[in-house]
Specification:
five-stranded parallel sheet; 62% helix; single chain; elongated; alpha/beta; 9 strands; 523 residues; two-stranded antiparallel sheet
Length: 523
Amino acid sequence: MNYFGPAAIALALSLVLTGLVRRLALKLKIVDQADSERKIHQGAMPLLGGLAIFFAYFVVLFLVRRHLISSSLPIETWLGFFSGALILVIGGILDDKYNLRPTRQIIFPILAIVAIILGGVSIAKISNPFGGLIILSHWPLLSPLLVAVWLLGMMYTTKLLDGVDGLVGGLSGIGGLVIFLFTITTRYYQPDIALASIILTAVCLGFLYFNFNPARIFLGEAGSLLLGYILGVLAIISGGKIAIALLVMGIPILDVAWTIVRRLASGRNPFRSADRQHLHHRLLDLGLSQKQTVLIFYLMSLVFGLSGLFLQSQGKFWALMVLLLIMLGIIIFFSYWRRPRSTSKSKLLLHICCAPCGAYWSQEILSRQYDLTFYFYNSNLNSKEEYDKRLACVRDLTKRNHWPLIIEPYDHESWQKKICGLEYQPERGERCQICIDDRLLKTALLAKKKGFKFFATTLSVSPYKDQEFIRRSGRRLAAAYGLDYIEPAADPDFYRKSQALAKELGIYRQKFCGCGNSLKVKK
C-alpha cells in the first residue's frame, strides 16, 4: 500500500486549512486572551485549530476510504469514528466562542464516546503482562466501560496538556507515527490502521508549522479533545494496543493523574479549578524555554513509544513501571523545589476582602512588581461561617503562590460597636465609609509596623463599592504614615477579568459584600 502519497496530501491540506482557519478565527474574534497566570502567550491568539485538523484528517480518510473498508473493520466503525469527532468539534467551537461551563463541556466527549461505541468499537481482550490474555466477553458491560474510561482519559490528558506551543500536536503526531510503525510490522500487520495513523502524523505536522513556538494559532477546545480522541480510538482499533499509546503519552497521563489527586487533596474540583503546576509549567519555571520543554516531552515519548515496538507484554509492563518511577521522582523533586523569592522587589501589604477580588490583581499584576504579603482583616462579615469560607479560599490562593498570609482574628462584636446606630444606612453611606476607613487604617498601621513601603486593598477592585472614597482614604493614610498607596490600573474590564479567573480557579464567589447590614438594607 502507498502510505506516503495520502500522507503528503494530508500534510498539504493541513497547512492550507490551518492558515485559512486562523484568518476565520481572527475575523470571528474567537481568540484566547492572555488574561490569566497560566497563559504564557501575549495578546489575543486565534483558536479553532481543531477545525483545520478535523477537516484535513477526515477529508483524506474519505479519499482513501476504499483501503479503509477493504480490511477487517466495517464501515459502521469508521462512521462512528467520524461522528464522534464531529460532535467534539461542534462542542469545542461552542466552548471556544462562549466559554462553556465544565458541566456542559463534558457533554460532548460523552456523546462522542457513545457514537464510537455504537459504531462497534470495543475492547475484546487485554494482554496479561505475565502471560496469556484476559477475555472480556464474559462481562458484556466491561468493554464499553473500559472504552469510555480510556477515551475520557486520553481526551482530558490532551486537553489539560495543551499549555505550551506545539506540545499536544507534536505528541499526537508521535503517537500516530508509533502506531503506524507498529501496524506495518509483519506480526501486527493492519494496513488500514497504519494508513489512518500516518495521515494523523502528517496532519499534525502541517498544523505544527503554525503552532510550534512562537505559535500563530492554538488548537482550542475542539483540537485538544479531538487529538486525544483520535489517538485513543486508533489505539483500540489497532487490536487493543493501548500499551503503545500509554508508552507514548505516559508522562502526560501521569501528570494529569497527579494533577487530579493534588487538586482533590486540597479540596478543589479538579476539572473546575486551574493552576500553574503542570509538569510543562514547572519546566518553564526552571528556566527552560517553550521549545526546550516541548522537545523534552517529544524525546521521552519517542524513546518509550519506540521501545514498545521491541518489547513483549511483560517488557511493556516494566517500561510503564519505569515511567511511573520517573513521574514519582519528578513529583518528589518539585514538592521540595520552590522558585526563589525575588529580593529585588518592593514589599507590599495587600488587604484582601475575598479571593475573587484578589486573585487576578495579585497573580497577574501585583506579583510581577511587588513581594506580596496578604492581610485578612474582615470582622465586618456577618457570620463566622462566611468568614471561614472566604478565609479558606484566601489560604488556598496564597498557598498555591507561596505568599505569606497574616490573619486578623474574627471579632464581629467590636465591629458592631463601631457602626452602632448606622445599621440601616444605605449602601455607600456612612456605615460603609467607617468599614473602609477601619480596614485601610489597620492595613496602613500594620504596613508601617512591619516595614512595608506599599499597601493596597482589594476593596478597590469591586465596582459595587465607592471607589472614590476608597481612593481618598488610601491616599490620606499613605500620606499620614509615610507609605505609598497602590490602586488598580484604569481598566473597564478589570472586574470582569477578576471574576473570570475566580471562576476558572473554582473559587467561592459570594453574592454580597459580606456585611449583614447590607442584606438588611436590601430587604
